[in-house]
Amino acid sequence: MAATRRDHRDAAQIRPLEIVQGVLHRADGSAQFDHAPTAVLCGVYGPTEIKIRDEKVDRATLEVNYKPAIGSSNTKDRWIEYSLRRVFEGVILTALHPSTLIQLNLQVVSDHGSVLATAFNSATMALMDAGVPMRTVVASVSCAIDQAGNVLMDPDEEEEKNATSCHVFVFDAEMKGALFTDSLGNYTPTQFEHCYQSCKAGAAKVIHFMRAAVEAKLTRQTQQS
Amino acid sequence: MEASGKIVLPGDVLPLAADAKKTAVVRLGPGLLQTDDAIRATQTGLLLANPSNNTWWVNGSTKRYVPALGEPVIGVVVSRTAEHYRVDIGSANTALLPVLAFEGATKRNRPNLLVGAPVYARVTLANRDMEPEIECVNSSSGKADGFGELTGGLIAHCSLQQCQRLLDPDNIVLNTIGAKIPLDVAIGLNGRVWVNNEKHKNVILVANAITSSEFLSHEQCQALVQSLIAKLEL
Question: Looking at the structure, do residues B50 and B86 belong to the same domain, yes or no?
Fold first, then answer.
């Protein structure tokens, strides 16, 4: 039986999602993604001019800047930047825009757990809004295993703090395997497998939601043409 | 042109693979890519097709310009050298505009564009590994064809798709305004529209109408323009 959670969710339930695309009018693409109340805002600039120092002649350079909700960024935030860059370097078709810069700027609007997963989802939506060519859409969901061994999907900050282990998974639209995993804590291979399967199901729901959001936006945008 | 009415996301497989004959030639436009096993979308947008020559492309929404051969663009001169002007056309790299690529320009008779001058030009070189090049003259006829320096007026910024829509001769916004107010308009496909009229308030009206009509339907566009004109005549 599912454990009762602080916000009365089931163990496998994701918090209510919300997507707003095109929030920043000076950016080439932007989006805010909410796993309410956690929210991350992302602005995409590019392909733009690049400093000669960072130039790669055969592909675009990806730069990720991540700013936490409070204070200046620390080592953990640099790890988040690195994770995002590693995943999106594989997802974006960087070879189509050589010697250019694609910049991802993320700002956490409110931090109530599962920030990394929200950041991944926010970046995907912003990249789609900017029209940056990508191989696929990615979606991310995190989960935590509590003291009793229950797998709690999309944990809030309290659940993350009390968990024995936390896991983040990133999947693409084909759902063949995870593009990225990040786990912290003590856990068994069986528990990991269980987390993997739960997050896979969760990511499918997130992608479904992203598709619905894009369709709603585009039908509004293309009513003249 | 025929809309298949389908909205695609990056990674979506094109439905044509299953029913198309193996011998049929399929032409892919922007937003589509052939991978090992299928043809996939790389951008979000509306999947469109031209059945007569089996061409497919994705009409997405972008603000950043990527130069393409032959497209008209509006740029701003950022620097000048003996042989070239360097022009910002909103793409990743600034474009080169040769001093001799103007109507009637010779080594003796050079055009004199200052830094900051807006120009209307055509893209003559668009290669992802090279800087783009533009010209203000039709190189076969030697005529300007309407290209050149833009004097006066105002440059409005909008999305690339909005610019394409404005090029349509039946465009509702420009037609409704044009019926009431005489206008000079230059549309660049890089998300910039230049408008000019004797009166500044008319220029501002047109720029406002263009930038705020992007997400409106035909009827809403008409209503917007009429309300703007009504305010002007008060």
Answer: no
